[in-house]
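User: Structure please.
Assistant: Input sequence and predicted structure:
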Amino acid sequence: MTTEDKKPYSFIHALYLSFFSRQFYQDVGRSWKGYGFVYLLFILILYWASETVRFQSDISEYVTEAAPAVVSQVPTVTISRGVASIKEPVPYFINYPDKAAKETPFIIIDTTGQFKSIENSKAVALVTKTQVVFKKYPAGIRTFDLAGIDKLVIDQNRVNDWIELFRTWFAIILFPFVLFFSWLFHVTQVFLCAFIGTYYAKRFGVALSYQTLVRLAVVSYTPGIMFQALHSVLGIEFPSSGLVSFIIALGYLYLAVGANSEAG
């Protein structure tokens, strides 16, 4: 084996060599000890960065279209010493912006006590004299007590400011949480792939440790995740992308184990 054959490959090399290079998979099996799950995080960052950009664009587009119709219905709400009030007659309804549900309450403001719950309503929030009640998806209700608020005035200008903050920061704040849970999910799948890889190793008659199979399984996920990222950038739907990526990873793991059976 020449010096050229023994040179280590970087994470950047992996983004394209993982699609075809048997020599690359040999190097992963031989020299990537301790880097497998770090590399998995690296490729997931690339994927979720593209998803975040797309999601941010979708949120911005939706808010731009829907927000004005909601904000224009917002009355001036004054909270003084934990008690909410408005000048308009109550109950006051802020309806959904879409035409199909324009008479359906989105937020209910009722300081009279007529509305005590929104469990069976399509409204997402209820403002009472002393509380704000939210629907917590996918199920449940959350109540926020106004007693701790000494003085606050909510009007259309303030709501517009909040919407702008949401549009700017929501996807960015969500990114690390989505990335973390996606990483955990893929770690589980990698362990499953590596277990299947033990049968590949028997078929090729090569002795590979489970740790080596885990490294090979991680890198075998590269083509599938890169395909997902490409679909995200191009705005193309990728049905059952998780399952497809898993199957692609199994195919490339077979290639990787075969390549390591040839390594001298």
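The two ends are 8 Å apart (CA to CA).
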